[in-house]
Amino acid sequence: MSKFPLYNPTTATLWQVTLLMQAGITCLLYFHDYPQQVVILIWLLYVSLICGIALKMTHRDKKQLNIVNTLIHAMVERDFTLRGVEVADTRLNDTVEMLNELADRLENDRRQTIEHQQLTSQLIEQLDAAVFVVNSDRQLILSNSYARRTLEPVYRDLGFADWIEVMQTNLSASTVTIDIDGNNHTFLLEADTCLLNGVRHDIYLFKQVDNVLYQQEKQALQRFVRVISHEINNTIAPVGTIARSLSKRLDKPFSRENFASGLQLINERSQYLTDFIRAYSALAKLPAPSIETVDLQLFMEDLRTIYPSLVITSEGRHTAHFDRGQVKQALCHLINNAYEAASDETSVVRLEVETTNGACFNVIDQGPGFSNLEEACTPFYTTKSSGNGIGLMLARSIAENHTGRLELRNNDDQRGANVRLCLHGSP
Fold first, then answer.
1. In terms of pLDDT, which residue wins out, 229 or 176?
2. Looking at residue 118, what is its pLDDT?
3. Which positions, given as ranges, span the membrane (predicted)?
4. Does residue 73 sit in the same domain as residue 96?
5. Are strands 350-355 and 311-316 parallel, antiparallel or unpaired?
6. What local confidence, expressed as pLDDT, does residue 378 receive?
7. Which residues sit opposite 192 in a β-bridge?
8. Residue 114 covered by a domain
9. Are 144 and 127 in contact (CB under 8 A)?
10. Which of 73, 126, 136, 349 is 20 to 30 Å from the Cα of 12, by its Cα?
11. What pLDDT, on the 0 to 100 scale, is given for residue 4?
12. Which segment of 67-81, 299-313, 366-380 scores lowest on mean pLDDT?
């Protein structure tokens, strides 16, 4: 790698030529007897020639060094736009090229840094949370628009330093309650640190919890109303149509069979609506589980009675501890879904029971699998024309009541889905 040239080969050659000339003149004057005036004139010409050459080379070297000094000074002043031109000295030219490359890299790094800072600033401004950056003296350095709009009126009179100290004092389970326009709101308070210009700063993030919960409850209520309205309309519409049709035939001769079929359809639709409401009531009124010791052999025999074609395998202990009625209800929902998803009557539905650690029930089918795993357990979500979106939600609630979990996945090696119901103590 080339460095700044302390040894200049051109200057060294000049001094070698000077020494040779001086030796030649000395020999000439030693072997010839020239008048004193001629000798003085020769030496004056020699000195003038040497001074002229040295002055010219010094000016050239100074010009070349000025290029290097200008480039370095510009980079010290954070100006990376200047570039050096090619110089005559080869070794010094390598230094200029290296400085040009360094300026290119520094200019690119600075541009990327500015772009990242702008992107970070935009993201912080768009956050639906209040962000504060504070220095070691508790002075507010930075805040986003949400913080200025929502919380600045709250701490304006007290001062930010005293206000944030009060918030940390009142912190309970990572949340604080803040009075905004006479209404109490709950915020999740998180703190972290960062470095700005090498100095440690504190970051405070206030996330309004009650607003998030309100939006979630609002969306759930809207979805519930849509489902209820849809199911009630689907039930009442055909009942009303049949009732009007039968009323028109009362004054005319009518077929008893037509009346019977119409009344049967009314009864079916009313029964469907009753079952629909009962299912949602069961979800809303799900009691705490009554844990008992369950004989898994008898438990599986009950399931075989309900589903004769169900293939059941078990591994581990013969007993487990759970609420027999709730788990049976959850498994019936899962097994019914598996049979409904089966592509034909020959499709096999398997139930694999693992009791090595706790109790896990794997329901495996050969259907098309889940089209949307993320939404499958969402309340009221269903892809079936006759579904109500409650089966998987109820199964998950029962699993969570047993401090367990419900896992959904599509089979990788073959068609179908695998629904895993794990209870307390399960792996």
1. 176
2. 87
3. 12-31, 37-55
4. yes
5. parallel
6. 55
7. 203
8. no
9. yes
10. 73
11. 41
12. 366-380
| Same domain? 418 vs 296 | yes
Taking each helix axis from N to C end, the angle separating 256-284 and 391-401, rounded to the nearest 10 degrees, works out to 30
CATH number at residue 244: 1.10.287
- Do 202 and 220 lie in one domain? The reply is no
Q: What is the pTM of this model?
A: 0.42
**Strand 350-355's sheet: what is its strand order?**
311-316, 350-355, 360-364, 417-422, 405-410
Residue 270 belongs to some domain of the structure: yes
| Residue that has been written with the tokens 């209870």 in this structure | 423
pLDDT tens per residue, range 348-377: 888 999 887 788 999 988 887 776 666 555
Q: What is the CATH number of the domain that holds 187?
A: 3.30.450.20
- Domain boundary (157, 176, 210) is at 210
Domain match, 368 and 411 both: yes
When pLDDT is averaged across residues 88-100 and rounded to a whole number, the result is: 75
Report the b/e string of 208-246 with b at 16+ CB within 10 A: beeeeeeeeeeeeeeeeeebeeebeeebeeebeebeeee
Average pLDDT over residues 265-286: 67
Separation of alpha carbons 269 and 237, rounded Å = 10
Name the 3-class secondary structure at 384.
coil
Same domain (yes/no): 398, 309: yes
Asked if 218 and 206 sit in the same domain, the reply is no
Residue 251: CB atoms within 10 Å:
7
CATH number of the domain enclosing 395: 3.30.565.10
Number of structural domains (the chain) is 4
Last residue of a domain, one of 79, 109, 139: 109
Q: Are residues 311 and 389 in the same domain?
A: yes
* E strand segments, 98-182: 130-134, 140-143, 175-180
Long-range contacts of 53-62 (CB under 8 A, 24+ apart): 53/14, 54/14, 57/10, 57/11, 57/14, 60/88, 61/8, 61/11, 61/89
* Domain enclosing residue 371, as ranges: 292-422
In a domain, 115, yes or no: no
Tell me the two tokens of residue 217.
């409850």
Cα(220)–Cα(57) distance, rounded to whole angstroms?
86
Q: Which tens digit of pLDDT belongs to each residue from 416-425? A: 888 889 987 4
Do 143 and 173 lie in one domain? The reply is yes
Q: Within 10 Å of residue 95's Cβ, how many Cβ atoms?
A: 22
Q: Is residue 119 part of a domain?
A: no
Closest by alpha carbon to 203, among 136, 128, 131? Answer: 131
Does position 5 have pLDDT exceeding 50, yes or no? no
Instruction: Write the CA distances from 139 to 1, 2, 160, 164, 196, integer angstroms.
Output: 48, 49, 8, 11, 14
Q: Are 349 and 339 in contact (CB under 8 A)?
A: yes
Residue with tokens 């401090």: 403
Highest mean pLDDT among 53-57, 175-179, 212-216: 175-179
